[in-house]
# Entry
Amino acid sequence: MRSREVFDPDAKRLDILCFSHLRWNDLRRRPRHLMSRFARTHRLFFVEDPVESDVPGMTVHRCDETGVYIAVPTLPPKLRSRWWQILEGLLRDMMNRYSVTDYIAWYYTPEAIRYTAALRPRVTVYDCIEEFTVLQGDSAESRENEKQLMSRCDLIFTGGYCLFEAKCEQHGRVYAFPSSADVDHFAQARFLTDDPSDQETLAHPRIGYAGVIDRRIHSGLLEEVADKRPDWQFVMIGPVAASDAKWLPERPNIHYLGMKPYDDLPKYCAGWDVGMLPLVTTEATRFRSPTHAAEYLAAGLPVVSTPIRDIVRTYSQIGLLRIGATADEFCGAIEASLNTSMGMKWRERADHFLRTLSWDKTWSAMNRLLTRVIDDRDEKTPCYEANSTGARIGEALGV
# Structure
């Protein structure tokens, strides 16, 4: 029998309940890119982590742009010991209100299993984009949450190859889906000439970063590089948590411009000379597969990064960016990027690589795997399972 797609008009369209530690409006990251696409063919509820409020509740509003229903639980701090019990009730109330009965459960955070264990979805998916056991201090609780979630999963996707290698020995159906990039969006930077007002007064050369600014930024390296080259301007775009602000280096040539609308990011990239990824190389970033490098390349920028494993494997080994582990090496890589023309061959290689990246392709490949599970389950036949690591990677990437 031919495997039908979930979006086939004749196929039953299941609802999707997505549980995410990342908020819908924070940054346009992997969950938002993918869930926006699934929402074209499924009714989709994006359930965020709770926020503190005196009155418990679940606010649900529909995003006009995508049709996604964004659900935000509110919980009283004084009842923190009962949060998971309250959350379970709030989720059930929401499902009853919207008649959610036949659905897919899609997890970005294993912690959500603490209030969703009673759910009985048709299919369970874990899209693992962080190593939570590391981020949460390798606690027994975080390990147990992920263990419980993985025991229920039909499919596990990972946001990079390092995460894939860590998870593939724990489950039979793990697929590597390195995070993609909105190439056409960032490629606008190649043709833009108007500088945003808060950047136009900065001298050149400008070395820019756009993303979350937290403790995974190598503050010591950034500070040292800024001191070594006071004639370079370092532009930092992205949200900064209040707890992290005091930890960031302050120098006359480091400029924190705050969070910017996604649509404006190409305008800022157009005014940079180099894109940078000054990330710490610790357990906190060992499993990261950031999208920034592809976004900078799409914008036409040379890129310099610290030696994050997935960055080295994906980009550096094929000569698409430069790596610097120490401040001297980072300065040297930026200097080389500023003074050496990357050339047409480099641009052609970069553009050829970028043509393999597409959130639409990632969504389509995930959707095919999801449809196979649904079809096999409906027919009561064994669920598809790749028989080798190479096959699992190849199937996921469609190669």
About this structure: The mean pLDDT is 85. The chain has two domains: 15-180+359-397, 183-354. The domain at 183-354 is CATH 3.40.50.2000 (Rossmann fold).
